[in-house]
Amino acid sequence: MKVMQQTAMAPAVREDAVRLARGQFFGEGRAPEAGVSPLIVDSWLRCRERGMAADDRAEAEHAGRLQLAEAREGNRGLLDYASGVMEHVFEQIRASGSLVILSDPQGMILHSLGDAEFVDRASRVALQPGACWSEAARGTNAIGTAIVTEAPTVVLGGEHYLDRNGFLSCTAAPIRDPRGALAGVLDVSCEQRMHQRHSLGLVRLSVQLIEKRLFEAEFANHILVAFHERPEYVGSLQEGLVAVTPEGHLAGANSIAREWIGRRVECGGGASFAELFRQGLGKVVDRAMNSSDALIRLGLRDGSEIHVQLRSLRPRFTAFGSAQAGEGMRTFAAESSPAAVGSAPPVSAPAPVSAPHGPITLHDLATGDAGIGRAVDRARRILGKDIPLLIQGESGVGKELFAQAFHNSGPRADKTFVALNCAAVPETLIESELFGYVGGAFTGARKEGALGKIQQANGGTLFLDEIGDMPLGMQARLLRVLQERCVTPVGSVKSIPVDISLVCATHRVLRDAVARGEFREDLYYRVNSLTVTLPALRERSDIRCIVERILAAECREAGLQGVWIGDEVMRFVERHGWPGNVRQLQNVIRVAVALLDEGEREIRPEHLPEDLFLADPVDGGKTPPAAHAGPLVAAASAALPLAADAPPISAAKRLDQLEIELIERVMREVGGNLSAAARTLGVSRNRLYRKLGRAGGVS
Ligand SMILES: Nc1ncnc2c1ncn2[C@@H]1O[C@H](COP(=O)(O)OP(=O)(O)OP(=O)(O)O)[C@@H](O)[C@H]1O
Questions:
Q1: How far apart are the CA of 486 and the centre of ligand 1, in A?
Q2: 627 falls in which pLDDT band (50, 70, 90)?
Q3: Whose CA is nearest to atom 7 of ligand 1?
Q4: Matching InterPro entries, A to Z (predicted)?
Q5: CATH class of 613-699
Q6: Ligand 1 first shell, C-beta below 6 A
Q7: ipTM over 0.90
Q8: What secondary structure does DSSP assign to 485-550, as a single string?
Q9: Strand 153-156's sheet: what is its strand order?
């Protein structure tokens, strides 16, 4: 790979050489033959062709707040996976007064982390979020030039086209998405004199890590097969990685695997696991399970060998279909693998079906959905800080679970987590529930008095569910507690100091309640310092993972092993609207597990509540109606009404056909752009990608 850099000379010599080259290019108008690399000269020529002058001081493009917010939203996956890596990079170079920068594929800075002093100086050249650092906007620079050349790029001092950027040293590398397209650029910038020679290695490694995370997130519901010709490279950033469907079809490959497959396809390989690796997936899985070694050796058609490790990030399979079940693999009740992306364990011998062990943490909740990932990431940032958290979301989305996970992930984890549902406690009792009371405070009160929830939570976390339903009078008292950090029990004059972390939840839009005068504005500002919104189940791209986690927990409860969700039910679950969210899904699975006959292991449609499946004259009511089948099917039904004389086909097939036809039409309309198609269809990219995979549209 060509790399644009020019760092081998001593700094003073190099600076002189660059100065000379600039003189030739800008003064004499001829391309320098020495002093700067040909790649820098090419970039200077491109800038000159655009009519740019070295002393140009015109304000370049800078996005407004709204535009930046939109760009960040549009690149949410990239931001989520890159920001952790950026923090790590920043830690490595903290002492060098640097900025770590992430840009989108057009060069707009989405996020930056940096040394305060340098940030100050950098901001004068607009090296900050919202600024566009494309070559067209700011001349030769590492971000913009890396985008044009699609290669890691170092631009030092005077190599920058614009004079005003001459004090910078910038090192950037392009980040590719799981399909090989440019997803963004990672850059490290500092003052020229602070340039570190290892920056390029650091940036390239970090980009590999981000790409790996993007890949694993994109294919979270696939089986990941890691391989390398040398066993010690499996598990490293040099490993080839392919994502395979349970049926053994290749769904994606990282850049190393793409290159490897490219060579094999020329040698007669193909696009399925069996064609590439000469053995069926089922057989390889069986071998992996029967082997005490995490790596298995596979012979290839050309006589060479590779070392393979099977990983399934999510779900982590605990039992597999054997070779007789086609060469595929079946999803059994799985041990949920909340172990986040990037730390997937190798497939091992069957383990007992189980949900996450130990107290649930934020890490466990990040199961691949971008919305949840965002909420987890934001909440994680305030762990251990005295900042109240407000969790919003429809009923049953897991707000309380999130609050618990937040508590368990922070420094108060070994203290108490106390929950009070403000909507469930009668108004007359909320006061004593919250603040406690002293003996004889009111008729019916216990002689010895009682501790209120606030005092019970002392040292730990107080979770106030449905805070929007708290009576106004109580709100004033709660506000006082939060301000004064003291609680006065009912009937007492003594205030008792308390130290609580406050987490509130609501399914209402609190701001509207404030506007209606139902919620105090001052308390509103107090409780919503950080708000996270949990997505409804129907919007989530990790439904499979949640299903498997709940199934594992229910099976454990029922003492069952080896239970799995049949394909038809899984399809329905993924499409259903789930008005009751995770709670409803949990109830459905609990009932389904209870309805299994002795020895029966597959959950089929007849195990689901009757009212979930409306009667369907064509296939006996086993297929969910379009109205229940999620936005994609609803859109398909509206857009592609069947002709009156259409042949009688099963409803399941009809829905699938409608979906596929609609997807194909929309994909054509948006020129194959998956994100645009997902937006038009009102589904997540992941969901659309899965559907394309099923329709055979993903290679
Ligand atoms: N990611 C998840 N995986 C497995 N189970 C979950 C998940 N999220 C929520 N649940 C389960 O769903 C049920 C509902 O969750 P929870 O009570 O936390 O939702 P909620 O939004 O707080 O509900 P409400 O709005 O009624 O207060 C709980 O039994 C919880 O354990």
A1: 31
A2: very low
A3: 398
A4: AAA+_ATPase, AAA_lid_NorR, GAF, GAF-like_dom_sf, Homeodomain-like_sf, HTH_Fis, P-loop_NTPase, Sigma_54_int
A5: mainly alpha
A6: 365, 393, 395-401, 465, 505, 507, 546, 549-550, 582-583, 586
A7: yes
A8: -EE--BT----EE---EEEEEESS-HHHHHHTTSS-HHHHHHHTSEEEEPPPGGG-S-HHHHHHHH
A9: 109-114, 99-103, 182-191, 168-176, 153-156
Class of domain 11-172+187-193: alpha beta
Atom of ligand 1 nearest to the CA of 401: 18
Which residues belong to CATH 3.40.50.300 in the chain? Answer: 370-534
Pairwise CA distance, residues 356 & 344, whole Å = 14
**What pairs with residue 185 in β-bridges?**
103, 174
Mutational pocket test of ligand 1: of 546, 582, 584, 587, the residue with most ligand atoms within 8 Å of the beta carbon: 582
Confidence of residue 292 (pLDDT cuts 50, 70, 90): low
Cα 491 to ligand 1 centroid, rounded to whole Å: 36
CA of 401 to the centre of ligand 1 (A): 6
Q: What is the pLDDT of residues 454-499, one digit of tens each?
A: 999 999 999 999 999 888 888 988 898 888 899 988 888 888 999 9
Q: What pLDDT, on the 0 to 100 scale, is given for residue 410?
A: 93
Question: Where in the chain are all domains bearing CATH 3.30.450.40?
Answer: 11-172+187-193
Distance 399 CA to ligand 1 centre (A): 6
CATH 3.40.50.300 fits 370-534, yes or no: yes
Asked whether the predicted pLDDT for residue 691 surpasses 90, the reply is no
Residue whose CA is at the smallest distance from ligand 1 atom 2: 546
Q: Where does the pLDDT of residue 38 fall: very low under 50, low under 70, confident under 90, or very high at 90 and above?
A: very high
